[in-house]
Amino acid sequence: MNVGERFDAFLENLKITNEQGQDGKTKYKGVTGSLNRNYYGTQSDTLNSKLVGSWGKLTRVRPPRDIDLLYVLPYSVYTRFQTRFGNKQSQLLQEVKNVLLGTYNNTDVGGDRQVVLVPFASYKVEVVPAFNGANGQYVICDTNGGGRYKSFDPVAEVANLDSSDKKTNGNTRRLIRMMKCWQGYCNVPLKSFHIELLAIEFLNGFQYAANSTVYFDWMVRDFVKFLMGKAGGYVFAPGTNELLWLGSDWKTKSESALGRAEKACENESQHWGYLAGEEWQKIFGTQIPTG
């Protein structure tokens, strides 16, 4: 098995199945319907909601992870909560939670204090309550530090990703999916959105960014090396220009991955395919074949 064949098979293994896709669709439409019945008095299971995150950006991987669902509340809800005292955003999330409890009795407020979780058996739906904002953006809750609202621009995020993906013949999304596999398999404490923004930045300067999967061993190796240099740094969210700190808790994981990727690349160059595959599996698990 050569490099291209290995990474072609890897990418195929990362695709969610039709059954998993249908399962996710059923779940997020059910959540939308529950909220619509309460806030808009409609039976629609599609209106007022928008897939964001990996399901909205088509960077989801197998096994499926959380489904991020933006739900746009009526403006009257915003004005109602503005008359309250204390952490208005926390109270708003609590109300959305209580609405969903009427349909799903295991609903909870998420740990990052911006979402409401509906934890199904297979994977959870993370509901992001929002209001329509200016210039096509949305206003979402942040309950930290006493509570505040902040801007969110999923359209700009997708446009940023699409632009890079077009320049790289689809390799941007492929790199993101592969590195999300590493993130999950090696328990890397780096957010998927940060991986996405860093992949776009890296590929903008990578010599073989638009090449075939024959170059993906180098792509992975060089991306991890690039990543190490970003420890303690930051990125900016498209559209809102919010500064996002990357932290450095994940740096030792990237150091380990780099050493293994370098060994794998050397074995690939010597046509020691099985040995290369063993090193790749230390990074990605069994979804990438040994040969």
What does this structure look like?
By secondary structure, this protein is α+β, with helices and mostly antiparallel strands. The chain folds into 2 domains: 135 residues, 2-Layer Sandwich (Beta Polymerase, domain 2); 132 residues. Helices cover 50% and strands 14% of the residues. It contains 11 helices and 9 strands. The strands form 2 sheets. Strands 1, 2, 3, 4, 5, 6 and 7 form a 7-stranded mixed β-sheet that branches. Strands 8-9 form a two-stranded antiparallel sheet. A hairpin with a 5-residue loop joins strand 6 and strand 7. Helix 6 runs parallel beside helix 8, helix 7 crosses helix 8 and helix 9 runs antiparallel to helix 10. It is elongated, with a radius of gyration of 21 Å. The termini are close together.
